[in-house]
Amino acid sequence: MSGPRRHRKSKHAKKKTATRGGGAQPLLPALKALRAGDSVGAFEQAFKLFAKSRNPQAAQLAMQAAVNMVDIGASIEASRSLAEIATDDADIQNDHGALLCRANRFADAEPVFRRALELLPGDGMTWFNLGQSLAGQDRFADAEAAFREAVAVMPDNPQAHASLGTALDAQERWLDALACYRRARDLEPGVRRFRDQLEASLKTCGIGYGERERMYLADLVNDPGDFAAAMQLACVYRDTERLDQGLAVIAKWLPKETELAQADRAQLREVLSELQFLGGDFKSAWPNYHWRLRRRRRWGGEPVQPEWQGEGLRGKSILVYAEQGIGDQVMFMAMLRDLCATGAHIVLECDPRLVPLFRRSFPDVGCVPVENPPAPETLDPAIDYHLAMGSLGCWLWDDFTGRERGPYLTADPEMTAALRQRYRQGGDDRLIGIVWKSPRGVDAGIKSFALDELDPVLTLAGTRFVDLQYGETAAERAAMEERLGSGMVHDPSIDQMADLDGFAAQIAAMDAVLAVSGSAAHMAGALGVPTIVLLSPAPQWKWGGEGEHTVWYPSVTLLRRGIDASRADQAQRARNLIERL
Fold first, then answer.
1. CA-to-CA distance for 380 and 304, rounded, in angstroms?
2. Is 345:305 a contact under the CB 8 Å cutoff?
């Protein structure tokens, strides 16, 4: 978050301090000290003069000296002492608040900005500063209100619109945020930051593909060597199911890839792999996907063992290390049984929250948590090889697709049974776990549903719905109960953010799961629970580009939604599937 800004052109800007007129002569020693780089000395002299005479020019010079101090703690202490006696100077209050925000002391900055507003009621930049301090405290609704006041006073200030957008984004009001980012970009089309925010918002909302395509094509007309624009254009084609056009963009760069920086070359190959995955060519995609490791590092540092290149593993040992998110780690474990079949001794590194579940599911594998510095078990020089878990497909894909696939994770059976009994409450209603949004995921806006958009499902008779959604859901559940006359089961004893083994048992207790793309969908598929995944347009490569089935989980049905299709139609199709369970 950018720091607060002055409510008007700073009286304390460098070289702007008054040096002529009444009262200027006593300031000359402080001014000379400031110009000589002695901010502390300049502050002491100017502050002393202000405390004695209340000369406003002395206050201005003292604050300029405080702002220029190298040590932020000393700077804040100096500005605090000045603000305590310059209580009627809105500039001093704003500058003191800005320094507090620079130190991430947003709660301390809030009352300072409120004091400035008392001095300058209705001042747009002071409202803006207050909004920044509130956003820094994660009080996004309050920040929104402050930014709206700022925008009302300063309708042509792009930063005020952009900051309002960030506050709305944080409240999952993605379309409202998009309008703010667009306004900021329109006001300052030459500022890259505002264009970047607009692009990111368009991606999140899953709209504006044509607009983004035109942006990148224009960039390439201006500079045919703009690699970043070319990759973004390829991704637009990827996300709009124009795979051939995306591949054509990549093909123009492959002959000159050796001229690219390593990170750019890795991105080129990774985008190529995603296009190939979505086209169903997993075999060709895996080696290109492996390039991602050239621009991503293992959380615990580089492995000490040589990388596995497909050598025979009988009698050998291999470290399979963690990468990416929970859902990805769960999905990649689909190939672990094929690795076990090679006769290797396996040390598996994973998210600490997955260790209990993976140990139960793979009893012959040594599971250790990701740590930094890394767990000692991963540093054993006797281990023969290492491999990132996302690259298992480079060597095991034929084996994986050539066998009968099925569930590979095992939840705690006793906990599963207890949860199922508790949720059914002595009845025989089917239990349907539901996940309707992905607020922290990639492309959150396009993936997520409002809960009321799933009312066609939530009104099914003979069904008890169980909240599997992470994050706070109380307001949405209360609104559902008021709207439909029935609610859903919410179990506060299961904290999926901290206890994934308990979450796995909760999922395993379901008769079926309805979920947007995310870790819960992967977990349910890996446990073998019948699962309907509500895919957004431009789904991640893991789900493939077409069809209702996935290579990873036989129990999963994919409900795809085209770019111009409605969520309402997708929800009705989900209802029809659940009715047939």
1. 8
2. no
The strand pairing partners of 489, in sequence order, are: 466
Residue 134: in which H helix or E strand, if any? helix 124-135
Half-sphere exposure (Cβ direction) of 347: Cα atoms closer than 13 Å: 23
Of 198, 230, 263, which marks where a domain is finished? 198
The Cα angle at residue 141 between residues 137 and 146, in degrees rounded to 5: 85
Q: What is the pLDDT of residues 345-370, one digit of tens each?
A: 999 999 999 999 999 999 999 999 99
Which string of DSSP letters, residue by residue, matches 171-208? TT-HHHHHHHHHHHHHH-TT-HHHHHHHHHHHHHHT--
Percent of the chain with pLDDT over 90: 82
Residue 19 pLDDT > 60: no
Q: Is the pLDDT of residue 538 over 90?
A: no
Cβ atoms within 10 Å, residue 16: 12
Please state the rounded mean pLDDT for residues 193-220. 93
Distance CA 127, CA 330 (A): 46
Containing 217, the helix (H) or strand (E) segment is helix 209-222
Does residue 385 belong to any structural domain of this protein?
Answer: yes
Q: Summarize pLDDT for 293-319 with one digit per residue, the tens.
A: 998 888 778 899 999 999 999 999 999
pLDDT digits (tens, 9 = 90+) for 431-461: 999 999 988 766 777 889 999 999 999 999 9
In this structure, are residues 254 and 268 in contact, taking their beta carbons and an 8 Å threshold? yes
Estimate to the nearest angstrom the gap between the alpha carbon of 30 and the chain centroid.
48
What is the widest separation between alpha-carbon atoms in the chain?
A: 91
Residue 97's domain spans which residues? Answer: 25-198
Statement to judge: residues 109 and 219 lie in one domain: no
Task: Specify whether 43 is located in the same domain as 175.
Answer: yes
In the chain, how many domains are there? 4
Which candidate, 135, 128, 188, 184, places its Cα nearest to that of 153?
128
Long-range pairs for 323-326: beta carbons < 8 A, 24 or more residues apart: 323/296, 323/298, 323/299, 323/388, 323/389, 323/390, 324/390, 325/519, 326/351, 326/353, 326/354, 326/500, 326/519, 326/522, 326/523
Contacts of 417 (CB under 8 A, 6+ apart): 509
